Amino acid sequence: MKRILLAAGFVALCAGAIAAVQRWRNGDGEKAVVPAVESLPVPRGPGSGVGARALGKVEAASEEIGVSSDITGRIAEILVDEGDVVEKGAPLVRLEPFVYASRVEAAKAALAQAVARKKLLEAGARSEDIDVARALLEATKASERLAVLAWERTRQLIESGITAQHAADEVREEAGRARSRVKAAEERLKIALHETRKEELDAAEAEVAQRKHELAVAEAELEKTVLKAPIAGTIVRKNLRMGEAVSSFQVSPVVTIADMLDLRVRAEVDEVDMAHVRVGQPVELEVLALAGRVLHGKVLRLGKTMGRKKVESNDPNERVDSRVLEVLIDIDEPDELPLGFRVTVSFLE
Predict the structure, then answer these.
(1) What is the model's pLDDT at position 302?
(2) Quick one: DSSP state of residue 196?
(3) Residue 253 in contact with residue 66, Cβ under 8 Å?
(4) Nearest Cα to 108, choosing from 216, 201, 204?
(5) CA 324 → CA 159, 175, 287, 335, 349, distances in Å?
(6) Mean pLDDT split into 10-residue runs, the chain, 349 residues
(7) What is the pLDDT of residue 6?
(8) Which residues have CB under 8 Å from 4's CB, separation 6+?
(9) Exposure of 4 by Cβ count < 10 A (0-12 exposed, 13-18 middle, 19+ buried)?
């Protein structure tokens, strides 16, 4: 019995010490103030006109869109601030363009070279080259005629026994070399006059097409150094700063944009209340952060799958393991409410 009394006294002493410390933290013996909790309104009842109640959050109908980069680079300039209203396609962020601009210039040079090569093949040889080839052919033909005449005379002399055979062999070989020179000159003139082969033209055209494609890709990458607004809306957040790097492998939005003119509420309805919620049903929306502020709207769409609660109240007795269905609600009087504001939704019968 004595041990029990001693233990009880020790517990009482500890409790008194804790209470003293708590009073000291709240200032010279003042009574500790327990923060008020926010909970859902009183549940529905017969004749209340409310079919169900739920918590929700304000969001943009467009949802929040993160504007990120498709290419790797470094932020050179952020052209907007939070709260700025921009039109669709307006420039928001500029990346350092040097590397991508250089690629465009290189692609342009390669395309120009391919086009020039194709034109040369289409045009063939110059008129001066053709004239030279013709003159060379005429000269070689003249040499051939002389060599053939010399061979004919030498052959007659051999038959007469006047010229030795070794001398005749040399004349005959010279005639053969003359005929070879004529054939070479004819081929040279033919090349100069002949239109480029179809295979060569096809290869040149394919190269030009390839260079055009490379230029288009380089220009598209250069254009991506300017991040533009995907929708008309308001800049709600700047996530990165000038000088920070962005990468196509690690997508991180530079700024976040949303259409603040078209707001809605995403409410979470408990599964036991689903029978009291329908599309088109009128609702009342009470903004928890603004006492007495009531908006009106209607149910726009019901979700297709059940899930866990994401919107929490400050009620310590709230169940966190209940299954809920997301319900989208269109607000009749769109107002300048910050995104993420919690509201109490009353589904009217």
Answers:
(1) 92
(2) P
(3) yes
(4) 216
(5) 121, 105, 20, 27, 20
(6) 44 45 42 37 54 89 90 92 93 94 91 85 65 74 74 68 61 72 74 66 88 94 94 92 86 90 90 90 86 86 86 68 87 80 89
(7) 42
(8) none
(9) exposed
165-193 helix and 127-160 helix, angle to the nearest 10 degrees = 160
Convert 220-232 to b/e letters by CB count within 10 Å (16 or more is b). ebbebbebebeee
Structure tokens at 217: 């890709």
Amino acid residing at 224: K
Order of all β-strands in the sheet with 73-78: 226-228, 91-95, 73-78, 245-246
Opening angle at CA 92, ends 73 and 212, nearest 5? 55
Reduce the DSSP state of residue 304 to 3 states and report it.
strand
Q: Cβ neighbours of residue 88 under 8 Å, at least 6 residues apart? A: 229, 230, 231, 232
Q: Which residues contact 318 (CB under 8 A, 6 or more apart)?
A: 39, 312
Which DSSP string do the residues of 269-290 spell out, in sequence order? EEGGGGGG--TT-EEEEEETTS
- Residue 56's SS3 state is strand
Q: Which H or E run includes 118? A: helix 98-123
Q: How many CA atoms lie within 13 A of 5 on its CB side?
A: 2
Q: Which tokens go with 213?
A: 């494609």
Rounded CA gap, 144 and 139, in Å? Answer: 9
Locus of tokens 């997301």: 326
Paired strand residues for 65? 257
CA–CA distance from 250 to each of 159, 170, 225, 245, 246 (Å)?
95, 82, 16, 10, 7
Region of 83 (left: φ > 0; alpha: ψ -120 to 50; beta: rest) is left
Kindly report the pTM of this predicted structure. Answer: 0.60
